[in-house]
Amino acid sequence: MSGCLSIAARERTKKAQPTAVILDSQSVKNTATSTRSVGYDARKRIKGRKRFFLVDTLGNLLASCVVAASCHDGTTAAQVWDALALSNELLDQVQLVFVDSGFGRRFCQHLAQRGIQAQVPTGVLA
What we know:
Layout: H1 7-13, E1 20-29, E2 39-41, E3 46-56, E4 61-68, H2 73-87, E5 96-98, H3 104-112, E6 117-119
Parallel strand pairs: 1-5, 5-6
Antiparallel strand pairs: 1-3, 2-3, 3-4
Helix pairs in contact: 2-3
């Protein structure tokens, strides 16, 4: 197995902070008792809230937030990113953010101004 790194060697070369993360949102229906941060996501036809999740490539949760479902993904994600980047040192080494096409060009440009690449993965994993 020449040319292959041993497990110990790979562990020594791994960085403690992630360099790539995944950002996604999920619209969820509102409960009858909840009245704050409620909106209507016309794209998904859901009245309720929208949850944003930021995870590393292993699926470990780095951050999350909840907003009204009517908030646009790209605009809200830009605001959330700036707030998280100030307070979360796990994001200091991030170079690549995977997002879906719903985040749009505005979010990609927002990250590019900060030296971070946003990428929309193509293809389907089996």
